[in-house]
Amino acid sequence: MKLRIDQRQLAEAAKRAHRRLPNNPLQPILGGLLLETDGDSITLSGFDYETSTRAALAADVLEPGHVLVSGRLLADVAAALPAGPVDLIADGNEAILTAPGTTFTLPTMDRRDYPALPEAPAPAGTVDGSLLAAAVVHAAQASMPDKEAAGKLEGLRGVHVAADGDRLTVSATDRYRIVRHQMPWTPDGDAEGDLLVPAAYLAATAKQLSGGPVRVSFASDIAVAALANDTLTVTSRTIATPFPDIERLFLDPAAASGWMRADAGELVEAVKRVALVNDKDDQTVVLSFDSDQVTVQAGINGPQGASSIGVESADLDGFTASYRAEWLASVLAPIGGQVQVWFTTPTKPVLIRPVDDDGAATDNYRAVCMPVRLSR
């Protein structure tokens, strides 16, 4: 293989492809990046049996070929090369990278020992990458930790992405919180589907691809889903256990016994402020309603805190309920502006939705938060 490539583009591609490789792979070859030419471009690929990455970039290919080298070493070397054109020459034993005044020689790995990379399914549609990243990263925080998810709960350790018409839905739950984001997307024809990928993997992928349009490929027959932009494609193995039907768990506002509207940022700050007196992460805050204000309280048998903010409410005078501070703050976090919260009893979950400028609750985001016992 012999080609010339721009240093900046090589460094960026190597960084993107190497970032998802394991730091200490059980098999050293899984720490490698596979470089393959294709016409007037080169693709850098990495694979650890769970996630694969393919970073493609233009190159002046003089002799086609392929080579497998250490991903960490290639990323470090490419970043250290001086700016400008880089010549890459590789044979079966070594890969030589040359820039004006600088030469690096990297040992190669045996291509025959490298696992075959999964093929990405055909794209089902396109979505704004920044919207997708924000939704997936937030939803991942509400997924169940891997160590707690087993058996029938396996699906709760993932983030679920589903298409329905011109809307894309991103959801997650740990049984105590449910979050559901919706955003516009452009389907390819009538293509619909869904994917369920481990939360940490999908969040990392969505962040890598944010900043432009992202093509979404739903799970194929070999249980692989993919996200891609113009330069990077990432495939991930999906979770076999189905994601639960969360739609039925959202409270019908008509069945609520009362509701409140408040500035979401003020409510989050009040929760975080009084939670400073809690000495454990799983301790709670108590919301108490009186006329046109809610008082958030924390602390028992020791330091205590209380903070009141103004609200608009209906049928909540004297209502008191307790929530884990971290859970409540996390489900409120994506809302900028007014939030509406519907309540039934102090022992049943609440429904949380943003409010638009016209005072109507929107459907772009919904959340559920479970209360906890007032004993704290």
UniProtKB/TrEMBL annotation:
The keyword Oxidoreductase does not apply. The keyword Mitochondrion does not apply. It comes from the Bacteria. It comes from Streptomyces graminofaciens. Keywords: Cytoplasm, DNA replication, DNA-binding, DNA-directed DNA polymerase, Nucleotidyltransferase, Transferase. NCBIfam families: dnan (TIGR00663). PANTHER family: BETA SLIDING CLAMP, DNA POLYMERASE III SUBUNIT BETA. CDD domains: beta_clamp. Residues 1-118 form the DNA polymerase III beta sliding clamp N-terminal domain. It is found in: Cytoplasm. Residues 152-245 form the DNA polymerase III beta sliding clamp central domain. This is Beta sliding clamp. Residues 260-361 form the DNA polymerase III beta sliding clamp C-terminal domain. It holds the Pfam family DNA_pol3_beta_2. Its main location: cytoplasm. InterPro entries: DNA_clamp_sf, DNA_polIII_beta, DNA_polIII_beta_C, DNA_polIII_beta_cen, DNA_polIII_beta_N. Belongs to the beta sliding clamp family.
